[in-house]
Amino acid sequence: HLPSLRVQVLIRTIRTARTQAEEREMIQKECAAIRSSFREEDNTYRCRNVAKLLYMHMLGYPAHFGQLECLKLIASQKFTDKRIGYLGAMLLLDERQDVHLLMTNCIKNDLNHSTQYVQGLSLCTLGCMGSSEMCRDLAGEVEKLLKTSNSYLRKKAALCAVHVIRKVPELMEMFLPATKNLLSEKNHGVLHTSVVLLTEMCERSPDMLSHFRKLVPQLVRILKNLIMSGYSPEHDVSGISDPFLQVRILRLLRILGKGDDDSSEAMNDILAQVATNTETSKNVGNAILYETVLTIMDIKSESGLRVLAINILGRFLLNNDKNIRYVALTSLLKTVQTDHNAVQRHRSTIVDCLKDLDVSIKSIKGRVPLITLVLFTGVYAPSKRWHIDTVMRVLTTAGSYVRDDSVPNLIQLITNSVEMHAYTVQRLYKALLDDISQQPLVQVASWCIGEYGDLLVSGQCEEEEPIQVSEDEVLDVLEGLLVSNLSTPVTRAYSLTAIMKLSTRFSSVNRIKKVVSIYGSSIDVELQQRAVEYNALFKKYDHMRPALLERMPIMEKTATNGPTDIAQTNGETDSTILDTKHLPSITQPARRCNYHICFCLAGIPPMTAYNKNGLKIEFTFERSNPSPNIAVITIHATNSTEADMTEFVFQAAVPKTFQLQLLSPSSNVVPALNQGSVTQVIRVLNPQKQQLRMRIKLTYTHKGSPVQDLAEVNNFPPQSWQ
């Protein structure tokens, strides 16, 4: 064995290994020699052996047998031993191992050591892996060092205090007096760590947040000095003075200014200066500008400043760096609902991002900045055709990555663009012939062909040259989707329903009956249910089929796309699934297919069911033609307060003589200031025509606090239940 190998020699030796097995053999030999040395209590090479163990640990080999040796090195009086011992403790120990508690006394002694570098080692170790117990025992020493005049120790003590607060939040108040003069320090290291500490305290305590708002003018002065100061080689990064400190200050200002008029006003000018004076040719400048934009958008900033921030994001979209373009898209997505006019100026640049080959720029699953931006900016689209073409382009190039509500959103857009129906169905049909791998595109195309297949075969398109296609060719495509391995169960449901709809638009009714009949024995339960219900429609309810399958009317804004939710029982009332045997089941949509086929009866006045704490719930009514015993109630939830109501859930229950079904809500966020509404459909079966009574339960989060309320609704208009 090689007990006296220096660390550098060991590293060179290991690097000569040609195979993993050869490296493993070298490591095992060296570990055996190190173990032997530890057993012999060899103090001469303990420091060297622990250093070699740490290198092996970094390569992924077990080194836990060196933990106690690290403690022995920490207890040594030699600085070189302590340095390796503390490094080993940070790498090999954590609070899950009881052995770390043996360090507490050593760390306490070293925090009071006469040498600042030993004190610094102990602060770093405590701030890295100190447990709750250690933090409680040593917080007093950390607080003392936070007040010292030594800048080297003060910056380390500030970071250690951050760790202590995270581990034991109730100790936060202990550090409050020490923070008083932190921002008066000239040393940038102390300033940086002090801002990190203040940020941690503000994020964890509303009281601390209110207390530290008085520091806004001081933070503004520091930031102004940074951007106005001349060249300083000690802090310069690519021509910008200490960008790391600038970013930290901007983040703290964002927290302090959020929801506070005075603090926001105090920082408006400096944010404008940073936004206009920061150099953008280097990445450090872009990082500062990005933080500036986030701060402007989060505080109560002036409208001109918000426009400036959005223009910065617009410039980011033109950057060659994909990461910068991506953060610009995600940031625009956060602001598009509140500052849509400013975002609208960059519409053409946003659409140009569709040409990017990087799928993360086109769209990201679960977040989808581009598809959402395209849908939002469509409110101000130059034409319906432009909007439809743009969203279809997204679905064609990145359809597998868009979120689920993109499908109903596009369906609604198409439905409401009556003059574009022939053009849209032709475009989507041609897209299906080219590619059926993009499932959202296939779902929209299936829906569109089911609705407007007659326009497709009649060649009525005026927007572009019409194509010649027969009924059988259209049905071939839809039947192909039913058997394709690429099709998801949801896509198959769309396709089968589209085929069913075509039974009232095409003459090939016998072929459609045969297809529907085949899927009555499908192993897919959802598809089987659709097929069985559609078969029943052909037989028992054939006289109502044309009315039930007629074109969808223009739709109100909704994003319902999930499976139906069943209302929950409360008290003595009972709620169950609506008994569909009383209805032709075409009224029950295939999941996420958005086929809500019901027919309004005029003359039922709307009613206010709930109005409290800014939340207003209104009911509007419809009656289902096929079964007059069913009332269709749509709830409209609006919010007049200044803050969104999030995690909104509406539940309802009715007496046992009724049966009730709740469909999915359009959203779980009720926008502030009545800037939108959440809608949800309730179906109530009332076979005995009794007066309708309902108990409702509302839960939501408002300004960070959960809210729950119950209410009785007994004043339904007679027309809704008679």
Account of the 3D structure:
The protein is α+β, with helices and mostly antiparallel strands. It has 30 helices and ten strands. A five-stranded antiparallel beta sheet has the order 3-4-5-8-7, with no helix packed on it. A three-stranded antiparallel beta sheet has the order 6-9-10, with no helix packed on it. It has a two-stranded antiparallel sheet with strand order 1-2. β3 (607-612) and β4 form a beta hairpin. α7 runs parallel beside α9 (151-167), α13 packs parallel to α15 (283-298) and α25 runs antiparallel to α26.
- Described by the principal axes of the CA atoms, the overall outline is elongated
Report the β-strand fraction as a percent range. Answer: 5-15%
Termini separation (Å)? Answer: 96 Å
- Percent helix, as a range, is 40-55%
Widest β-sheet, arrangement of strands: 3-4-5-8-7
Specify the structural class. Answer: alpha+beta
Q: From the alpha-carbon coordinates, what is the Rg to the nearest angstrom?
A: 34 Å
The biggest beta sheet reads: 5 strands, antiparallel
Low-confidence stretches: 363-369, 558-602
The total count of helices amounts to 30
Q: What is the β-strand count?
A: 10
What is the mean pLDDT? 82
Domain GAE: 602-717
Family: Belongs to the adaptor complexes large subunit family.
Protein name: AP-1 complex subunit gamma
Membrane topology: Peripheral membrane protein
